[in-house]
Each structure stands twice: as structure tokens, then as C-alpha cells.
Amino acid sequence: MPERFQPDTLRPRLRPLVAAAAEPPEVQAYRRFYGLDLAERYPHLQSRLGCFQAAGYKIVAQLWWPVQPVATLLLQHGYYDHMGLYRHVVDWALGMGFAVLACDLPGHGLSSGTRASIGDFAEYQTVLQGLFAEAAALELPQPWHLCGQSTGGAILVDYLLNDGGRPELGETILLSPLVRPRAWGWSKFSYRLLKPFVTGIERRFNANSNDANFLEFVQRDPLQPLSLPTAWVGALARWVPYIEAAPRSARSPLIVQGDADLTVDWRHNLAVLQDKFASPTVLMVPEARHHLANESAALRARYFDFLTERLKSCTESACGLRA
């Protein structure tokens, strides 16, 4: 594994994503560390790491642009994550001929904000709108497919149920989407009990994947938050009833869910999503845990085959009908 890069050295040197400025050498160190230097696999691949402003945050974003892209994938990562951990999804999308645009959420990765915290989930929607604006400014090819893991999936669910009207959109992929976390009743009770006394609790690193190398890597990832802020739990507690009361949508997302997921209450979540959306397509992956973006190679292959089949048959007109 390459030597660690220095996040505090890299952050202040980033320029606006839409400005095709020369990248500082720290960017290549970042890409090597996370395995995002994919030019050897995709000749003439263009990559860009930069930032934009949204919801009062400096949001760091990354673009991969293959030769003659046929569509775009806009990627939203999960809680505690950052876009550096999504090389398998990026690799799959590039193999499909898609441009890929991703960003670190507030308080995550290289973006600004209190680590792993948020004041309100509405801020995530503002960041998503900022990502759409960057895609438009960069003139990324349509359709724009959406993909979100866990909390990233929650952000996309919120968008589809309460807005979702962009004509550029194609398919929406939800990997282990969050509506309620597992043991949500106990979590809310603990939040109310601890809120007057602490601002956060120590994070526990769970075995949320069958990929042992990924679990080991996360332990030494310099961008991993080490606490669970009570502010984020409070924001989630306000968001859950809001989204469960949201109006139904005519859209039909693609949902991938592992049956060994111990992070979200997936049975409850699937019931909510099947009620909220018009005939969503659900792929259950036996033995898969929560972090589908970094599951074992065999389990990733199963759901990537499923997604490839669905998205290859998606023309611009068909996507508009399905989305």
C-alpha cells in the first residue's frame, strides 16, 4: 500500500472543480493511496480533484472522464465514508463507459465541517443540488444516473420523494439504503439520554463487509471519523419521520440489499421503499453485509452484473420512463 498522503496539506491547495487548473502533487499521492489512479486500466482517462461551495461548506469533489462517455454516474457515499473508498464502483462505472462525479459529504473525507456531523439532513440536499450544478457546468453527458450507499442512498431517496424532477436523470441505484438504522428504538433512547451530557460517543468499527482487506484498511484510513456526534443522530431522528411521511413517487429505483446487513433495519426499510416508489426493482444478495461498495469480489460481481444488465438496456427515453 502506498505511503499515506497528508490531508491537511492537500485540502488548502484544491481549486474549484470546474477550473481545469494544474493539480498539486499531493493529489496523485491521494489517488495512489486509495487506488483511484485508474489511468492504466482506462487509457486517456481524465481525472480532476477540486471543490465547490454548498450549504456553507467547502465540498471536495472528484471527476473521472473516459474517452467518449455515454452517460454519467453521480455518486453519494455512506456515513463515515468518503469518495476515496469507492474505487470498485468507479471502476465498474468507467467500464460501462460512464463519466463519474462524486463528492465528500460535509464533515467527511476532504470536505469541511465538523467530522461526521450535520445540523440537518436538508443540508445534504443542498450539497446534492450543488453536485448537480457542477455536473451541468462541466457539461457531463446525459443521462445522469444516481448511485448512493447507505446514507448516500437516504439522500437520493429524499431527493426522489420530494423533488426528483430533473430531466437529465436516468436510473437511481440504492445500495443498502438507510431509512432507519438497526435497533433504531434503542438508538433514539440512548440519544435522548446522552444528549445533555456529551457531544459524541466513541465510534465502533464493525465488520460491515466480508472483505477482510477492506476492514483492515479502514482501520488505518487517515480520513476516518473516530466518533459518532449526537448532533448527527438528532438530525437523523428528525429526518426519519419526515421521510416516512413523504408522498409517494412514480419513480422506480434499483435497490441492492444484503441479507446479512446488521447496520440498517433493512426489512423495515425495504417495506417503506416498496410503498414509496412505483415497483422498485430489488436484488437481495445472500450473505452480503452493509458496505456493498466494498463487499467481497464475488458478492460485488453479483450485483454489478445485475446493474450492468439494467443500465445497458437503458436508453435516454427508457430511463426517463423508469426513473
TrEMBL record:
Q: Hydrolase as a keyword?
A: yes
KW Cell membrane (keyword) present: no
**Pfam families with a match to the protein in the record:** Hydrolase_4 (PF12146)
Q: What is the lineage of its organism?
A: Bacteria, Pseudomonadati, Pseudomonadota, Gammaproteobacteria, Pseudomonadales
Locate the Serine aminopeptidase S33 domain: which residues? 68-296
Q: Which organism is it from?
A: Pseudomonas cavernicola
Question: Recorded GO terms, molecular function?
Answer: hydrolase activity
The entry's protein name is: Alpha/beta hydrolase
Identify the keywords attached in UniProt to this record, alphabetized: Hydrolase
